[in-house]
Every structure is written in structure tokens, then in C-alpha cells.
């Protein structure tokens, strides 16, 4: 990949993370905004916008590090495990989904098992859809690695958000992570296409 494309991918993903977190903050943290709207305090509102935009940049960087770490690990694993790497990935996907439900449920005193189950199922369904698109645009062998990335790597990247008290920052974090991970997964083969 040309260095120009690496820079383009970096900054477009960074911008996507910042904007998606900012938009999500209007819904998740609306009380923080409402506090400064009546009476309107433009300085405080601007401060909130800059804070959530910068937070989104951080989430985007987490997503980008996760993506390039996965690309590296995937190449090593293909060399070491060869033909059984797809099966190992399927097992790890199942473990990550189990972890999203069981261990989160055990760590929260008044948590709802149903909510954790819905979260894991939604992540799996979304991952299947995106992996299907990736496989259709590249080749059928890309389905399992794409699903692995969308489920396992996203779940690992989400861990800091899941450890916060309350659900606000968990939701603030997962939206940009999913958007950035999806974007990187679906754009990389276009940037590395040698026909261009």
C-alpha cells in the first residue's frame, strides 16, 4: 500500500471516529449538554463538543491499532496454524461472545442477562453482515477472518468501555469502534488494489 493511502486511511478513520462519537454523545450524554443550554453557555457547549470529538479520536486510534495488530497476528497465525486457523478463529469467536455475556453478567450485581445476550447477538449479526460484504467484494475465504475481526477484535477493543461504571461510556465507545472497524475492513482492499 502506498504511503499516501496509509495517511488517507489514518485520517479518514480518525475523522469518522471523532464525528461518530460526537453524534453519539448528543444521545448518550444529552444531560451534559442540557445543563448548558438553558441559559445557553456557548463556551461550555464548545468545551463538550471538543471533549467528545477528542474522545472519538482516541476511540478511532484504538480501532486502528486493533486493526493493524489483527493484520499482523493473522499473518503469523496463517504461517503457524495453516489450515486449522479458520477453525481456531471460529472457536475464539464463540469464546468472545460467551465472554460478552457470562463474564459481564457475573461482574455486574444488578445486570440483566437479557441485555448482555442481546448485545452479543447484535454484534454477531452485524459481524456476519459485514463479513458477508467483505467476502462478496474480495473472496469467500475472507468471511471467517472478517467475522473474527468484527466480533473478537471489537470485543477486545471495547473492554475499557465495559469496565466503566454506568453504561454511558460503553455506548459512547462501541459506536465509533464498530463504525471505524467496519470502514477499515471494507476500505483496505480498495486501497491495496493493484489494478488502480
TrEMBL record:
GO biological process: positive regulation of sporulation resulting in formation of a cellular spore
Stretch forming the signal peptide: none
Keyword entries, A-Z: Membrane, Transmembrane, Transmembrane helix
Coiled-coil positions: none
Keyword Isomerase on entry: no
A UniProt-annotated Pfam family: KbaA
Record bears the keyword Membrane: yes
Transmembrane segments annotated in the record for this chain: 7-28, 48-71, 83-105, 111-131, 143-163, 169-188
Protein's recorded name: KinB signaling pathway activation protein
Organism of provenance: Gracilibacillus ureilyticus
Amino acid at each position: 500500500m502506498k504511503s499516501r493511502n496509509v495517511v488517507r486511511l489514518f485520517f479518514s478513520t480518525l475523522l469518522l471516529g471523532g464525528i461518530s462519537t460526537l453524534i453519539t454523545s448528543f444521545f448518550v450524554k444529552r444531560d451534559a449538554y442540557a445543563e448548558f443550554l438553558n441559559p445557553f453557555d456557548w463556551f461550555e457547549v464548545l468545551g463538550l463538543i471538543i471533549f467528545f470529538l477528542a474522545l472519538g479520536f482516541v476511540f478511532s486510534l484504538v480501532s486502528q491499532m486493533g486493526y493493524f495488530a489483527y493484520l499482523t497476528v493473522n499473518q503469523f497465525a496463517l504461517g503457524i496454524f495453516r489450515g486449522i486457523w479458520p477453525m481456531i478463529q471460529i472457536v475464539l469467536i464463540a469464546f468472545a461472545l460467551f465472554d460478552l455475556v457470562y463474564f459481564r453478567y457475573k461482574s455486574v450485581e444488578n445486570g440483566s442477562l437479557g441485555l448482555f445476550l442481546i448485545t452479543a447477538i447484535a454484534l454477531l449479526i452485524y459481524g456476519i453482515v459485514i463479513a458477508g460484504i467483505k467476502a462478496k467484494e474480495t473472496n469467500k475465504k475472507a468471511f471467517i477472518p472478517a467475522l473474527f475481526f468484527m466480533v473478537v477484535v471489537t470485543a477486545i477493543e471495547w473492554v475499557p468501555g465495559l469496565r466503566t461504571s454506568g453504561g454511558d461510556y460503553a455506548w459512547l465507545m462501541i459506536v465509533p469502534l464498530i463504525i471505524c472497524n467496519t470502514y477499515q475492513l471494507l476500505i483496505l482492499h480498495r486501497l491495496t488494489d493493484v489494478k488502480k
